[in-house]
Every structure is written in structure tokens, then in C-alpha cells.
Inverse folding.
């Protein structure tokens, strides 16, 4: 029973939890939805609701004064907002993805989804963002259950064939230029390549390496210390039994994280509550069936 409820959790077959809230982190029914909107206690993804205000929000292609808006100006306005928001969120940790909805429905218009590399970074951003203002409007951030944006995105919108327009129930994610994406997210690639650079010392030619003699080991150690001090990074230590290429120990840092343990406990409580609710429904159905059978037939 538990395996069955876990397999249908967040799907259309789940009669308890809302599948749309599980997929896109928002539901058009809001609090009036007949199914539960279970907010995660911790998640790498944050939802900042209704944050982006596009110039032609009331009527697409027309500004509030009724004048036609140049699409290039709209895209420029969007990319300025994207870059400004990215630089602010980047202070709290490495960003995996930053997605902004182009939908027009009230529960999705201007929604910002930021997915951090670590859950601790998302928690830090949540604590620092709530209570602040952007463009005179309060920031409303919360953890989101969305982790796979491929399931939340409208594929027809990406193919320019969605006939529901801005009122589609799936995400219409607005794109940015390749140059801006390379500028913002390219820093992480350069940082990772720089962190791997100490291993390139093994590729130096034989003539460049110090050989023998007194004090050559000290010279080598000093050079390594200057390397990591200049970059503000420390070399990753390895246990004596850990070799390159071997899978990490199951008792690694991630599994010891109290944040992940709290999330696992929360998920366990959700599944347990679903099981108990399912058992109560079955017991109620059994009682009703018993009385229907026991009643005399006139």
C-alpha cells in the first residue's frame, strides 16, 4: 500500500495531493482547490510570486497608455530585470537555473523560479529575501516543489503551437539571449574549470618539474599554497582509502546534511498521512457497504 501511494504521489491518480501544484508550484484554484497543496519544508527551488512586471502586462503589445510597444524594448526590459535579479540571487549561492513565467493567468503571471545548487543556499536566500521590496512591491518568496522544469514547461509553447496563449496552465518560460546566458552562467563553468586546474600540474613537462636537491619539496609546497590563497579555495582532501574514480562514500556530506534529513522526515510524514487517510476512506466505505447489505429488502 505504501509503495503504491508513493508511486502515484503528485500524479492525476493521487486523490489527495494536487498534481498541478506538485508540477508547477501553483494552482489556478488556489486555496479553493479540492486537493492538498503540500508545501515542502526545504527545497533547492524558490518561487517568488508575481515579481516580474512586463511593460505590456495588461494588453500584450500595448503599454498602459494605449501605445504600441516595440518587442525589442520589451525583451530589453526583460533582460535588464533578469540580470539584476541574477546578480542579487547569486549572492546567496550558485544558481542552477533561473526561470521567469510569461503567462498571464493570475496564479502564474510574473512568477520567478530560482533553483540553487544546494538546498542550504535556497534557505539562505529565503531568509534574506522575505520582507524586502523590489520596485516598490513586496517580495513574496517560498519553497517550491518544482525540481524538474521539463515536466512543468509547455512543450507546445516552445514549438510556437500553444493555442491557449498566456492562460495556459503550464509554464511559458521567457528566454534570454545567448550572450546574456553565457555572461551570467559562464562564470560557473570557468570556476569549475579553475578548480580542476591543480591536476593540470601533472601534465607539466619533465623539464619544468624540480628534481632532487635540498629544499625542492618546500619550494613545491609554497607554490601550491600561493595558488589556493590567490583563488580563495582550499584543495579537496581525500581519505587514505579513497582513490580517484571511486564512488563517494554513502556517509558523505550530503547525507549528513540536517536540511536533507528534515526533508526526508517531512516526506515520510506526508506519505504516512496519505496512508492513514486512505485507510479511513476504506473503513468508511466498508461501513456503508455493510449497512446497505444489512438493510432488509422491501
Amino acid at each position: 500500500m505504501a509503495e503504491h501511494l508513493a508511486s502515484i504521489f503528485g500524479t492525476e491518480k493521487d486523490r489527495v495531493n494536487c498534481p498541478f501544484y506538485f508540477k508547477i508550484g501553483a494552482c489556478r484554484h488556489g486555496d479553493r482547490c479540492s486537493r492538498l497543496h503540500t508545501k515542502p519544508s526545504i527545497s533547492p527551488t524558490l518561487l517568488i510570486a508575481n515579481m516580474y512586471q512586463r511593460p505590456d502586462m495588461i494588453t500584450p503589445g500595448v503599454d498602459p497608455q494605449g501605445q504600441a510597444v516595440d518587442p525589442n524594448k520589451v525583451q530589453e526590459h526583460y533582460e535588464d530585470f533578469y540580470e539584476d535579479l541574477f546578480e542579487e540571487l547569486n549572492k546567496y549561492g550558485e544558481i542552477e537555473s533561473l526561470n521567469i513565467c510569461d503567462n498571464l493567468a493570475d496564479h502564474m503571471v510574473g512568477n520567478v523560479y530560482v533553483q540553487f545548487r544546494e538546498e542550504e543556499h535556497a534557505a539562505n536566500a529565503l531568509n534574506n529575501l522575505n520582507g524586502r521590496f523590489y520596485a516598490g512591491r513586496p517580495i513574496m518568496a517560498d519553497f517550491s516543489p518544482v525540481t524538474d522544469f521539463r515536466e512543468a514547461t509547455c512543450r507546445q509553447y516552445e514549438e510556437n503551437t500553444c493555442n491557449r496563449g498566456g492562460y495556459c496552465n503550464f509554464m511559458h518560460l521567457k528566454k534570454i539571449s545567448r550572450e546574456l546566458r553565457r555572461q551570467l552562467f559562464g562564470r560557473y563553468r570557468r570556476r569549475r574549470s579553475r578548480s580542476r586546474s591543480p591536476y593540470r600540474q601533472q601534465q607539466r613537462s619533465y623539464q619544468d618539474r624540480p628534481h632532487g636537491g635540498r629544499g625542492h619539496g618546500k619550494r613545491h609546497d609554497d607554490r601550491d599554497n600561493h595558488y589556493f590563497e590567490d583563488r580563495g579555495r582550499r584543495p579537496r582532501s581525500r581519505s587514505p582509502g579513497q582513490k580517484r574514480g571511486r564512488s563517494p562514500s554513502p556517509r558523505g556530506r550530503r547525507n549528513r546534511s540536517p536540511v536533507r534529513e528534515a526533508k526526508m522526515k517531512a516526506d515520510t510524514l506526508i506519505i504516512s498521512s496519505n496512508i492513514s487517510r486512505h485507510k479511513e476512506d476504506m473503513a468508511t466505505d466498508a461501513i456503508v457497504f455493510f449497512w446497505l447489505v444489512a438493510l432488509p429488502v422491501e
Q: What stands out?
A: The domain at 39-188 is CATH 3.30.70.330 (Alpha-Beta Plaits).
